[in-house]
Amino acid sequence: MKKILIVEDERNFARFMELELMHQGYAVTVVGNGREGLETATRDAWDAILLDAMLPELHGFEVCRGIRRAGFATPVIMLTARDSVMDRVSGLDSGADDYLPKPFAIEELLARIRAVIRRNKRGSGAAQAALAYRELRIDPVAGTVSKAGAVLELTKREYELLLVLMNHRDRVLSRAMLLDLVWGYDCEVETNVVDVYVRYLRNKIDDPAQRSYIQTVRGIGYVIRT
């Protein structure tokens, strides 16, 4: 039985999600504030965490960062009434695997839970060999990126985006494809989230005196050309 943790302070809404998930066969635990949510998330093993952004005692983004700092790769779906692009970026940049604005259909939530659990299961499979191009090196086992031997500080999402582009070198990937491969969205979202993260990556991996690692193919998407 898959275990789901819900961190949500709106009791009626939390109860609604709990009953729906239990009906689908999930084992569900509900906590109502951020501090308890972080403690619970890092104390036990979970198949997925549904995390509200606006929580008492500790903000949802901080809870997610705390989960990642503690070394847990548990899939996190951020739930929030805020739906601007920068809010989505903030949620994903904190380490969330998906972002679902309220209100939403329970069928979509269930589909996203299945998707993040499925991707997490795939990601825990056989270890991938290290990838190298020019001065960049990605070690998928350690989850690190280095440039000329120096380890770079990337967020979880930046790392995953770079890994996808490195795994598909010389193949142009559209923004929609990158959203699906990195974020796993199952519905239409604003693709400029990809542009924001490519800019973040370029700021961290590029040398102004050299050609950018990530090339823009105007009107289509991005590619790392070798």
Count of β-strands: 12
Helix count equals: 8
Tally of structural domains: 2
CATH topology of the largest domain: Rossmann fold
Radius of gyration: 18 Å
Strand and helix order: EHEHEHEHEHEEEEHEHHEE
Please give the largest β-sheet. Answer: 5 strands, parallel
Low-confidence stretches: none
Question: What is the CATH architecture descriptor of the largest domain?
Answer: 3-Layer(aba) Sandwich
Give the name of the CATH superfamily of the largest domain: Response regulator
CATH class identity of the largest domain: Alpha Beta
Work out the strand percent. Answer: 15-25%
Q: What form results from the Cα inertia axes?
A: elongated
Overall mean pLDDT: 86
> What structural class results from the helix and strand content?
alpha/beta
- In the sheet with the most strands, the strands line up as 2-1-3-4-5
What percent of the residues sit in helical stretches (DSSP H or I)? 40-55%
What is the CA–CA distance across the termini? 45 Å
Domain OmpR/PhoB-type: 128-226
Keywords: DNA-binding, Phosphoprotein, Transcription, Transcription regulation, Two-component regulatory system
InterPro entries: CheY-like_superfamily, OmpR/PhoB-type_DNA-bd, Sig_transdc_resp-reg_C-effctor, Sig_transdc_resp-reg_receiver, WalR-like, WH-like_DNA-bd_sf
Domain Response regulatory: 3-117
Task: Break the fold down into its secondary structure elements and pairings.
Elements: E1 3-7, H1 11-23, E2 27-31, H2 34-41, E3 48-52, H3 60-69, E4 76-80, H4 85-93, E5 98-101, H5 106-123, E6 131-133, E7 136-139, E8 144-147, E9 150-152, H6 156-167, E10 173-174, H7 175-183, H8 192-205, E11 215-217, E12 221-223
Parallel strand pairs: 1-2, 1-3, 3-4, 4-5
Antiparallel strand pairs: 6-7, 7-8, 8-9, 10-12, 11-12
Helix pairs in contact: 2-3, 4-8, 6-7, 6-8
